[in-house]
Amino acid sequence: MEAVPRMPMIWLDLKEAGEFAFNAAVKKSAVSVPRDFEGCSTLRKYLGQLHFLQSRIPMGSGQDAAVPVTWTEIFSGKAVTHEDIKYEQACVLYNLGALHSMLGAMDKRVSEECAAGAFTYLRDHFPHSYSVDMSHQILSLNINLMLGQAQECLLEKSMLDNRKSFLVARISAQVVDYYKEACRALENSETASLLGKIQKDWKKLVQMKIYYFAAVAHLHMGKQAEEQQKFGERVIYFQSALDKLNEAIKLAKGQPETVQEALRFTMDVIGGKYNSAKKDNDFIYHEAVPALDTLQSVKGAPLVKALPVNPTDPAVTGPDIFAKLVPMAAHEASSLYSEEKAKLLRDVMAKIEAKNEVLDQFMDSMQLDPETVDNLDMYNHIPPVLMEKCAALSVRPDTVRNLVQSMQVLSGVFTDVEASLKEIRDLLEEDEAQERKLQELLGRVPPAPGSPPGLAEVSKECSKYLELHEKASFTNTELHRAMNLHLGNLRLLGGPLEQVRAALPTPSLSEEDKQVLQNLKRILAKVQEMRDQRMSLEQQLREMIQKDDITTSLVTTDHSEMKKLFEEQLKKYDQLKVYLEQNLAAQENVLKALTDANVKYAAVRKALAEVEHKWNTTVQTLVASYEAYEDLMKKSQEGKDFYTDLEGKAAKLLERARAACQASEAHRQQLLEREMKKQPPPRPTAPKPPLQKKPLEMEAGGPEAAELGSL
Fold this sequence. Notes:
This protein is mostly helical. It contains 21 helices and three strands. Helix 3 packs antiparallel against helix 4 (112-125), helix 5 runs antiparallel to helix 6 (165-187) and helix 6 (165-187) runs antiparallel to helix 8. One of its GO terms (cellular component) is endosome.
């Protein structure tokens, strides 16, 4: 796998700057940066100096020195203006993350962790109401995308370095985890509406990568099983890798050629591994192949992280050009309070993320999708792909009759050719038998010169035609078998839609089964409600922290009273914290109820899965029969053309065989007549005693002569 072509990565466009009453030269150099690491350095310096400026001059929202700041919103292209210097900082920080994402998508595969760090700092330290492209949902999506791509880069390096199979599997599994988080965000209706048309492209690529890297993880778990000589486990891991790769291939339709190359390369590797492992286990090791769900799941190893951003790091920002403007005591106290708020947010987020991780792992293990857990509605309709085939056959009512007639014509020509070749073979065998008989009677002498020509050529051509007929006969038999296989399905597709619907399997659930299903759906709805409430409370907390500015109070507060002031101010978050604690505590009870409901759902789930499998198989079989029709007609016509040509040749050869056999018979008669003339006349004999035996001689009227005469 170290030579697998690289998958493309998602990168973000940079925002365009508009109005900002700042030094024009500084502004231009900061917003029109080159697309390289020097550009990243310029943005970091500009961000730091903006921070220094803000700490001395009241340029924030609603403050005396605030000026309009305009930037273009990425997704809509609209200009968005705020009178807040923090908006300028936020946009520069966004561009820093976007530029790192652009550099990370290049061949060198670096900088993704820096992009994640920039977006994380932007999400945690700035308001989310500035513009759509800097909302909490979009920034969280960007962070997970960047972390996933950073982990993907690490996976590429690990495979190139031939790291241990188990480690590579865990690294790949973590890629899947990051992309699942990104996919959840992309599937969120609010996020989708914010992203617009780009959402579908990103979602399709991310979903394809989830299956692809899951396949890579199971491939390396299979390789580890191979190293441990667990040959049964090896087969099931490679089988799972193959299944997941096939899902990735389905989702890769419309993706660029680089993706298709990577998928083809990986299919060659996994397909070869699976075929070899299955063959070895079937014929050599004979180990039982366990079910995949009985094996320990692959836990991801998060070996990348969002690199922290420090906007005031002197190694990055350079000297503070505003150092002599005003004292910073009040701003220093505000910074301390900001750190207290950040600590509060970190503590709360640690609890939320821990619970979310447990919830995500639990739901992944359950494999319960609220949207598909109840798919009974699909059985009430004929699927569109089948309706399309039925409609196509409805305007071609003679489909089945044409196919049957074509095959009947083919069978007739086939029979004629077979009869002609059999007659030729019988003529040749009869001629050969008469020739042997003549030679036996004449003393096994070779045929006399002047034997009629043509039989050897006829025999040679007959053998050639028989060989062609024998090979084509197998094809003809297979063609008839295929026709009989698909004929019933074609009749069904060409008939009334009610018959088609009746041919599709449907589940039969008891009232108790329906109650079990409804109960499960109710609890799954509770799980989603708990998730939504948690996200809402988290968003409220973040917004409160962002708006919480106590600079005015700090100016009039004595330094010795600062700690007390902080404690009093932080109490405003207590109510939200209580609500969050209640939400987190409820998770255990909800998951217990879900576990119980899932146990009762197991039998229903199995029955529904079996019916769905039969339903899908039936649909695929009917579609395959429709798609096989044109091929059967084409091959039938090719068979008719072949046998029509062979029939003509066989008929001509039969005429030649008859003529050659007649000539050969005439030649044998000539030889017989000449041989008869060579026989000496009978000698006179003396009267014989009554009891004396006669010598054994060939007489003209004896049985030998009679046998010659019969020829």
